[in-house]
Amino acid sequence: MHPAIRRDGVAVITGAAKGIGFAIAQSVARMGMRLVLLDSDEDALHDASNRLRQNQVRVSAVVGDVTDQGLIARLQDEAMSLGDVALVVNNAGIIKGAGPWQDPEKWRRLMEINFWSVLTMQQAFMPQLLSQTTPSAIVNLGSKEGITTPPGNAAYSVSKAALRVLTEQLAHELRERVGSKVTAHLLIPGYTFTPMNYPGMTQETSKPEAMWTADQVADSLLARMAINDFYILCEDNEVTRALDEKRIQWSADDLIQNRPALSRWHPDFREQFKEFAHEAVTTIPSKSQ
What we know:
Elements: E1 10-14, H1 19-29, E2 34-39, H2 42-53, E3 59-63, H3 69-82, E4 85-90, H4 104-131, E5 136-141, H5 154-178, E6 182-188, E7 192-193, E8 212-213, H6 214-226, E9 231-233, H7 241-256, H8 270-277
Parallel strand pairs: 1-2, 1-4, 2-3, 4-5, 5-6, 6-9, 7-8
């Protein structure tokens, strides 16, 4: 297990009431970590906190918008009152964005939540993590759409691409400054059964076969942190690791080979991509990551 995942260490998780955030909270609660949770959904956060307390751990819940800097300061105070901060998970995010020249207000809102709030959290918590003698870790929630940047939701892809670069820079600076005492990790889920990907889902909703559960993503996170992986690229039941690698390689080669932007979706290159990916799958799944 990663040394940050330890009994009585404090885990701070945003967007913690549902989905991947809750699954991570549940996983670390079972290991005896104390929890400080942030979510904008008061009812869901209340329910999540009660469920997590069944693990006989301390749970502090803060309701509000992750873009509120005053709220981040309160979150920091709550965490430090419980002990050494061992884990910070920047999970809160939204997916509804806009095209490359439309809806400036949607752009601002999405970037505020998906990128600027993460930077604010890092700026708030890093001095504490660096000053502690105990090990700690930061996990930022990335997306495959921040790597292969498929067309259709430019704002979301831009936000996750920016978050990827920010987390890479953070990991490098930490390695150079403090070695492995504080580590950074980019969690990259696949197609996951969460309210973001499956709006309107309830506890009674059956999971589609193609999706991973949020618990599978949380399990993968902890297992990969234990071997100090930075890129924690998750599969799902539709897209294999091999196909993900083909998609990522193709995107990188667009620049190297001077192909048209997003050539995977360009009519002149679609068949060529299918041939390129053929070794990974017998057919290309319909859902684009």
